[in-house]
């Protein structure tokens, strides 16, 4: 299931990122396979705010749908 369709305030385990560009940056921010994330907010234009090990990470609509 993609993060864009995961319910708010539910935890999920990242299985794969599905993105090529920015893959290294995502890993640096803690978004890597095996990480536990929680969707904290959906933004007006389809973005997603995640809690990744206590840090907030905002993804645009395209990145969240991968």
Briefly summarize what is shown.
By secondary structure, this protein is an alpha+beta fold.
Explain how this protein is built.
This protein is an alpha+beta fold. The protein is built from two helices and four strands. It has a four-stranded antiparallel beta sheet. The radius of gyration is 11 Å and the shape is globular. The mean pLDDT is 82.
Strand order of the largest sheet: 1-2-3-4
Overall radius of gyration: 11 Å
SSE order: EHEEEH
Structural shape: globular
Largest sheet: 4 strands, antiparallel
Q: What portion of the residues fall into strands of 2 or more residues? A: 25-35%
Structural class by sheet pairing and helices: alpha+beta
Question: What separation lies between the terminal Cα atoms?
Answer: 9 Å
Helix segment tally: 2
Number of strands: 4
Calculate the mean pLDDT score and round it: 82
Low-confidence sequence ranges: none
Q: How much helical structure, as a percent, in the residues?
A: 10-25%
């Amino acid at each position: 299931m993609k993060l864009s369709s995961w319910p708010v305030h539910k935890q999920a385990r990242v299985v794969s990122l599905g993105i090529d560009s920015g893959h290294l940056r995502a890993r640096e921010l803690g978004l890597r396979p095996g990480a536990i994330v929680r969707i904290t907010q959906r933004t007006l234009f389809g973005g997603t705010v995640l809690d990744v090990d206590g840090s907030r990470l905002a993804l645009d609509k395209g990145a969240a749908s991968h």
